[in-house]
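ARCHIVE CARD
CATEGORY: sequence design from structure
SOURCE FIELD: tokenized fold
FIELD CONTENT:
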């Protein structure tokens, strides 16, 4: 290879970095690579990169020298200080107009800060979300770039070539917005992923503990669901997981895995952003906390011996199950559940999963709307839905319907008021309510499904008990209130005890 022959450089040859390099090379791009542990570069060149248009570099200076202008350097290292360290090492070697790209799971404020700092040096900066895991990185991920708009024309041919393609052939990659918008959208993607996974877990819990379905039966159920409205990557891999047996014991492997989940922080970031913006992100917040609770395994084992409640009765034990449901819900509900039978209950759980999934996306897109208004990023929700239709972890047929909803109304405030999704919820909610009631009566924790249902009932309520809350706030803190018989924007204070004065607190919302 001659000097300055590479189309793009990449720093960080971990799983995602290595597979992105191979993806780029397979689409006709020459890639220069560097890894802090230089031996990793040599291993890569001698292995998967052997004979390909990939230039191995032993220093950052060597990598920069191998790049065509404007130089494009993609950073694939752990989010946080490591990214700043790489930037500090690379930036002095670049010239005005060159481009730095952070493809990790970076917190969006860091991307906004870095873009501002590098712009002062004449450098263009992109923070891009990349979703799809190892397979997606190799075969086509969903790519969500944001940052300095002047950089987009230079990376667009590469990014859209290597991205996954939607069923209509459109690349699952487009410009998201300025500053940290790309990483913000990726954060929302990951938060919705948390919600989807928790909802699937709750459906599994209901079906295994109440309906008595074993892994083989669950494999069949999820296979059937993956051919309908729930058709998605996560349902597909859940089907496969239930069908996988441990080579050593012959048992379903899922039954041997410890029930303590990990997390890397993007879900927590999303909850924090929702809190700052005042957006009710109830389902995803519960999904984050459900992982936190799962991690308290030793405490839960101890608590199980001391704390008592309903014990799940599987449906085949008809009398015990009906008795349990009757105690908790009353004879009418018990009779209803008796009538629907096991297959009917499976259908109810499917409806609960589907309706709750709609809520999860409704909350996620509402959060992006709020952030777009706050920052002026002008995030195109329809384009985001398109980007998520292929390659990423939450890819599903469902996202096509979201794209259509925003095509019908680009200013749609909430997916729930779109005619299609309103009708879908209407059709699903009877089964959704029965499934949640069954879980409550049987002692099955359903933090995400029940939070989704509570959000739906709250969002459709034209009257909530917040009038009492405001009265309480005014009573103890003179925080004022509005009246239903006066125009909005007029605030009042009452001297509730007769001992207070007329002075009221300043009215504001955080």
């Amino acid at each position: 290879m001659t000097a300055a022959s590479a189309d793009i450089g990449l720093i960080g040859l971990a799983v995602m970095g290595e597979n992105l390099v191979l993806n780029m090379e397979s689409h006709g791009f020459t890639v220069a690579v560097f890894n802090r542990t230089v031996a990793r570069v040599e291993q890569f060149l001698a292995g998967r990169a052997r004979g390909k248009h990939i230039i191995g570099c032993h220093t950052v200076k060597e990598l920069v020298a191998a790049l065509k202008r404007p130089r494009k350097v993609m950073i694939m290292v752990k989010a946080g200080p490591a990214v700043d360290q790489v930037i500090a090492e690379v930036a002095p070697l670049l010239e005005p107009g060159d481009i730095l790209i952070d493809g990790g799971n970076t917190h969006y404020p860091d991307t906004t800060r870095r873009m501002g700092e590098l712009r002062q040096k004449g450098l263009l900066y992109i923070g891009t979300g990349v979703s799809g895991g190892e397979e997606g990185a190799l075969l086509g991920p969903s790519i969500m770039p944001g940052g300095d708009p002047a950089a987009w024309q230079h990376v667009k041919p590469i990014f859209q070539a290597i991205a996954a393609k939607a069923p209509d052939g459109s690349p699952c990659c487009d410009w998201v917005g300025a500053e940290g918008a790309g990483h913000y959208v990726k954060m929302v993607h990951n938060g919705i992923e948390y919600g989807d996974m928790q909802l699937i877990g709750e459906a599994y819990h209901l079906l295994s503990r109440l309906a008595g379905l074993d892994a083989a039966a669950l494999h069949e159920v999820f296979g059937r669901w993956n051919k309908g409205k729930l058709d998605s990557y996560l349902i597909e891999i859940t089907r496969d997981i239930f069908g996988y047996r441990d080579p050593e014991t012959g048992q379903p492997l899922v039954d041997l895995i410890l029930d303590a989940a990990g997390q890397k922080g993007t879900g927590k970031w999303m909850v924090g952003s929702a809190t700052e913006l005042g957006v009710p992100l109830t389902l995803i917040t519960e999904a984050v906390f459900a992982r936190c609770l799962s991690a308290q395994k030793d405490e839960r084992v101890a608590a199980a011996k001391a704390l008592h409640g309903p014990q799940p009765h599987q449906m085949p034990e008809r009398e015990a199950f009906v008795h349990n449901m009757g105690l908790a819900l009353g004879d009418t509900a018990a009779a209803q559940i008796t009538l629907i039978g096991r297959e009917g209950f499976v259908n109810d759980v499917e409806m609960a999963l589907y309706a709750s999934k709609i809520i999860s996306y409704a909350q996620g897109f509402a959060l992006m709307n709020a952030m777009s208004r706050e920052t002026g990023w002008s995030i195109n929700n329809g384009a985001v839905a398109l980007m998520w239709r292929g390659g990423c972890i939450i890819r599903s047929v469902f996202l096509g319907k979201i794209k259509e909803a925003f095509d019908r109304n680009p200013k749609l405030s909430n997916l729930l008021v779109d005619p299609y999704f309103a009708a879908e919820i209407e059709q699903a909610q009877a089964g959704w309510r029965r499934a949640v009631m069954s879980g409550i009566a049987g002692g099955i924790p359903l933090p995400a499904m029940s939070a989704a249902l509570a959000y739906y009932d709250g969002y459709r309520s034209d009257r909530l008990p917040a009038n009492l809350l405001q009265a309480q706030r005014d009573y103890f803190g003179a925080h004022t209130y509005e009246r239903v018989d006066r125009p909005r924007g007029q605030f009042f204070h009452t001297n509730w005890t007769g001992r207070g004065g007329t002075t009221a607190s300043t009215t504001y919302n955080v």
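CARD ANNOTATION: The longest strand covers residues 124-131. The CA atoms of residues 216 and 387 lie 34 Å apart.
SHELF: design records, drawer C
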